[in-house]
Amino acid sequence: MEKNSATLNTIQREWWKEAIIYQIYPRSFKDGNGDGIGDLNGIITKLPYLKALGVDVLWLSPCFKSPNADNGYDVSDYEDIMDEFGTMADFDNLLHEVHELGMKLILDLVVNHSSDEHRWFKEARKSKDNPYREFYIWRDEPNDWISFFSGSAWTLDPLTRQYYLHLFVAKQPDLNWENPALRQEIYKMMRFWLDKGVDGFRMDVIPFLSKDTTFADFPAGRKNDLTYYANGPKIHEYLQEMNAEVLSRYDCLTVGEGFGVNAGQANLYVGKNRHELQMIYHFDHAVPRGEEHFITPAPEFNVVQLKAIFSKWDTALGDDGWQNIYWGNHDNPRVLSRFGDVGAYRIESAKMLATLLLTLRGTPSIYQGDELGMTNCPFENIQEYDDIQVKNAYQSLVLGQKKDASTFIKACNQIARDHARTPMQWTDAENAGFTEGKKSWLKLNPNYRYINAAQAQNDPNSVYHYCRVLIQFRKDNPVLVYGNYEDLLPDDPYLWAFRRSLEGFSLMIVANFCGEIQPFPLLSLVERTSLLIGNYNGEGIKDALRPYEVRVLSCWE
Ligand code: GLC
Ligand code: CA
């Protein structure tokens, strides 16, 4: 593959651009003690699996002390471990083992809000002059802001008769970043983890930290528009301060959850000379999950729209900024159920999507189970769901507004976050090898009988082995990290074809997003390519792509 080795003469290499992230949702990854809940010791037993896959950085969704109103995204002690997940000794052990295997570990920084059971909030609500009062946001009267998880974003605290702000549920009071004392506490906590050797942070709803302190109602035309909460007046001041006080002092990875950040604003967060974050991930192709979507889900993106979103972001970031590329995470249903085929072409379409994830420009994140081709779970009724967002939406829409319950369940089957949270499918044994106990905390997807890691590891044609090969391929081909991105067929309704080029050398990736053979209109290009990786055996049809076929081609002029 001589032609294929770019020299990287002109490029400044960064490990966090070259890394491949794997997201672990600890509650659902592996149960180590039989109580039906995933935990840190469970993760430790699966590190060899992750190492063999070839990923570099593990992102742990929150593992801190929490009453679990929102599965750990409500932290009651930032410097301690959630009881269900283990102890600080278990954490230290996990970190040590990850490093021993040459991988890195990043944590989830959830600092827009804490739990109402955090000692700061317990103090704050005691009296108006409590020293912790100003760690949170209090008003005599609420404005018309709504919570992500239904209802008003303000709750009256009976003792002091003021309302506190919570953009999420009432058990997640928003922290007051205007207060320098709060900010210093957060920086201290970040240093605590970095000094332990943690390798960075994924930052939860980071664009929300700064609020417009007038707390006016939603402006005209933006009523109920939750993206309005993002990009507040002091957000960049805070992130630059966090960078100066903490991040710049460590060689750590930072990825912001960019909810509400549009492509034009991105480089304010991640531009080279901004001294804020290294990368963010956007929501332009995420599943919209406002309350109304639990009755009428938004139509899924088609491939023309997807290509337009990726091109827009790629152009906007240019040479200045960087992004994190993802298909799935714990907040979205399974990507395979969205853009692939969960039936006849499950394997092919999962490989096709994995190929895009690992060849687009940006640092890729693989969500646990996507490397096995896991799918949405057939939840049958409201009792089978766990997510607070689903429960609150049910309360509001079905019990409150008397909307049709079956319409609601149908929508959940398309958009609910729990689809990504069903336990990891390790084997075809009882409870999918996730727990030795009787019952897992959330329903298992019944398809674990044939979709599981043991099967995948034994089958050379599995999605898992394909991902493994592709991950190595990306490491061997810096053009996939540093090369520019050019969409070759932006208007084609079925194909996604693009070129990545670096220093006179290029790769072409062509993918068919549908279950039928599609003619490939760039025949002249095909004449000057050769197949490096694909999801079908053999060279295939010369000028057409088979159902969900993807090819990675080397190309020359
Ligand atoms: C982020 C998390 C999500 C959580 C919310 C509140 O969007 O990814 O899971 O519910 O923030 O912390
Ligand atoms: Ca457990």
Strand order of the largest sheet: 11-10-9-5-2-1-13-12
Bound small molecules, by name, code or SMILES, are: alpha-D-glucopyranose, calcium ion
CATH topology of the largest domain: the name is TIM Barrel
The largest sheet, given as strand count, sense and whether it forms a barrel, is:
8 strands, parallel
Number of strands: 20
Radius of gyration: 23 Å
Tally of separate helices: 17
Structural class: alpha/beta
Please, could you describe this protein's structure?
- This protein folds into 3 domains: 17-110 and 283-467, TIM Barrel (Alpha-Beta Barrel); 119-165, Oligo-1,6-glucosidase, Domain 2 (Oligo-1,6-glucosidase, domain 2); 485-556, Immunoglobulin-like (Sandwich), CATH 2.60.40.
- The protein has 557 residues and is α/β, with parallel strands linked by helices.
- The protein has helices at residues 15-18, 40-45, 47-53, 88-100, 119-124, 180-196, 235-245, 263-270, 303-317, 335-339, 346-359, 388-400, 405-415, 453-458, 463-476, 479-482, 523-526, and strands at residues 21-24, 57-60, 64-65, 77-81, 104-109, 138-139, 154-157, 162-165, 200-203, 253-257, 279-281, 324-326, 363-367, 484-487, 495-502, 505-512, 518-519, 529-534, 544-545, 550-555.
- The longest helix has 17 residues, at 180-196.
- The chain has 17 helices and 20 strands.
- The chain has an 8-stranded parallel sheet. Strands 14-15-16-20-18 form a 5-stranded antiparallel sheet.
- Calcium ion is lined by residues 31-33, 35, 37, 39.
